[in-house]
Write a structure and sequence with these properties.
The protein has 174 residues and is α/β, with parallel strands linked by helices. The protein has a domain of 107 residues: Alpha-Beta Barrel (TIM Barrel). 41% of the residues lie in helices and 10% in strands. It is built from 7 helices and 4 strands; from the N terminus they run H-H-H-E-H-E-H-E-H-E-H. Strands 1-2-3-4 form a 4-stranded parallel sheet. Helix 4 packs parallel to helix 5. It is globular. The protein starts with 19 loop residues before the first helix and ends with a helix.
Length: 174
Amino acid sequence: MWKPDFKIDDRTSLWHGSTLHELYQKGYTPWKWHKPIFDRASELGLIALSTPFDDTAVDFLETLDVPVYKIASFENNDLPLIKKVAATGKPLIISTGMASLSQLDEAVRTARAAGCEDVILLKCTSTYPASADNTNIATIPHMRKIFDCPVGLSDHTLGIGVAWRRRAWRWARP
């Protein structure tokens, strides 16, 4: 039986009744698709990246010479994964959803200790879709100060309202 945290029980959700495992099985990008996607992105002058969820994915992505890694919110407490990715020496983007400040501190310290000089955090609210009221974007400058790194927004709200407010707010302050 699935733990309640791993099953979508929101009756208004498209995925009501599904487990996260079922959704991941439907939503993952097969490894055989990666090279053609990366090649096409390169042809178009775009940077492609893929989020690894385990060591084997990091090893695979290294064969594609990815320029940057992203750690998903659900893995931001997987310190061995963060350490492995950080050891590549490539920039590392970490989504912050569901993590406490102390957990984020541990993730950032782990990345830096393993050799990653470029850590970027993405303020993220791990609800899908997130409401504008619970995105708490005012924490972004605080996070930037605490962790001494760039902090962006991973926005799961519907529409452009929160991202637009973030942009307007950023330009309104030094």
